[in-house]
Specification:
With about 100 residues, the chain is mainly alpha-helical. Helices cover about 30% and strands about 5% of the residues. β1 (about 45), α3 (about 50-60) and β2 (about 75) form a beta-alpha-beta unit. It is elongated and about 60 Å long. The longest helix has 11 residues, at about 50-60. The chain folds into 2 domains: about 10-40, no CATH class; about 45-100, Rossmann fold.
Length: about 100
């Protein structure tokens, strides 16, 4: 890519793989700093949608990823309700679990 002014703006989230079904490669994000060594990375660490309990739960799952950036995400919202996990292997019971809430 030939750019005279060397200006590029890229947005990506290394914790999401929404385009993996299109063969998107996460290394494009993970290697960005080394591929463009004069770049500046700005991390967006505030979540405006979810409660802190949801953020904490998702971070505990994401932290197990083999390739991830170490970062602390916080919510601007309240701590929120406790997360209750229910499991069922029967289709009708699964449907009822979601209807309970």
């Amino acid at each position: 890519m030939l750019i005279k002014q060397k200006n590029i703006f890229v947005v990506g989230d290394p914790d999401q793989s929404i385009y993996s079904w299109r063969n998107a490669d996460i290394t494009n994000i993970l290697n960005f700093k080394s591929d463009y060594n004069k770049s500046k990375i700005i991390y967006l660490n505030k979540n405006y949608r979810s409660s802190q309990n949801i953020i904490d739960a998702s971070q505990s799952v994401i932290s197990e990823n083999a390739t991830n950036y170490s970062r602390q995400i916080t919510s601007v919202n309240e701590k929120g309700n406790l997360i209750i996990s229910k499991e069922s292997y029967e289709k009708t019971k699964k449907q009822k679990l979601f209807q309970e809430k």
